[in-house]
Structures are given as C-alpha cells and as structure tokens.
Amino acid sequence: KLENATAKAELGRASWKLFHTMMARFPEEPTADDSLALRTYIQLFARLYPCGDCASHFQKLLEKYPPQVSSRNNAAGWACFVHNEVNRRLRKELFDCNNIGDFYDCGCGDDGKGKK
Ligand code: FAD
C-alpha cells in the first residue's frame, strides 16, 4: 500500500498530543511504581507505534536519551527534548521547551488527581 503522508502526520499530531499531555499530568513526586509505569509505557509506545519507520527511529532515540521519569518536570522536559530531536530530523521548527508548562491541558479539571 502507498504511504499516505496526511494520515501519517495526523497520527503523529494525535500521538504527540497524548504523549505530552500525559507528561503534564504525571505526578510531581511520583512513587517508584509511578515511574516504572511511565518508563514501561514509553518503551511500549516506542515499540508498538503504528508507523514502523517512526517506531524504529524513536527506539534508537530512547536508547540514546533514556526516559526521565523521576518527576513531572523531568518527564515533560525529556518528552519535549525528544520531540525536538524528531523535529530536527524531519527539518521542522523546534519548540521552546521553557514554554511547555501550561501548553498541554487535559481539560479534565480536578478529577480527583488533585492537579491543574
Ligand atoms: P507535530 O510534530 O506533530 O507537533 C504537534 C504540535 O506539538 C506542534 O504543532 C506544536 O504545537 C507542538 N510541539 C512541537 N514540538 C514540540 C516539542 N518538542 N514538545 C512539545 N510540543 C511540541 N513522521 C515522519 O514523517 N517520520 C518519522 O520518522 C516520524 N517519527 C515519529 C515518531 C513518533 C514517536 C511520533 C509520535 C511521530 C513521528 N512522526 C514521524 C510524525 C511527526 O513527528 C509529526 O507528528 C507529523 O509530521 C506532523 O507534524 P506537525 O508539524 O503537525 O507537528
């Protein structure tokens, strides 16, 4: 089947949105189990990402820059950094990671997690 760049880009945008929003909701002070869950999620995301080329590039990126899962700030900063590495490879504009703070809002209010 032919590649469909529009569908590939749309999948990318949706995936990045979920990825960064998840980091924005990760605990500021995670338990060891929270951190293990996030690391596992990221590794499985990289393994199962539906675009095979993207997945193998991203897996190499994770080897070079292992997921930072020790706090929300570290996780969000790491995710912004690796997305920028993908942007760089695809010759896209880089995102200013100092502005990551309030950019990703899940819209879920105080749904019992006591955040945002
Ligand atoms: P996207 O890169 O999708 O970004 C969406 C929005 O996120 C931007 O508009 C901006 O508001 C914000 N943003 C941008 N940079 C950052 C950042 N660093 N941190 C936080 N927010 C940011 N496509 C390919 O063609 N080849 C690939 O190998 C490839 N690999 C991918 C690997 C992964 C894991 C993912 C999730 C996607 C991959 N994609 C790949 C898709 C590609 O990254 C883009 O999603 C797609 O090209 C659409 O780009 P876009 O310009 O709309 O912005």
What would you say about this model in short?
The chain is an all-alpha fold and 116 residues long. It is 59% helix and 0% strand. The structure holds flavin-adenine dinucleotide.
Distance between the termini: 43 Å
Oligomeric state of the chains in view? single chain
Helical coverage, percent range: 55-70%
Q: Rg from C-alpha positions?
A: 15 Å
Poorly predicted regions: none
Hetero groups in this structure are: flavin-adenine dinucleotide
- What structural class results from the helix and strand content? mainly alpha
- Report the portion of residues in β strands: under 5%
Written description of the protein model:
The protein is mostly helical and 116 residues long. The termini are far apart. It binds flavin-adenine dinucleotide. The site of flavin-adenine dinucleotide (FAD) has 21 residues, from helix 1, helix 3 and helix 4.
Please describe the topology of this protein.
Blueprint: H1 5-25, H2 32-48, H3 52-64, H4 72-89
Helix pairs in contact: 1-4, 2-3
The structure holds flavin-adenine dinucleotide.
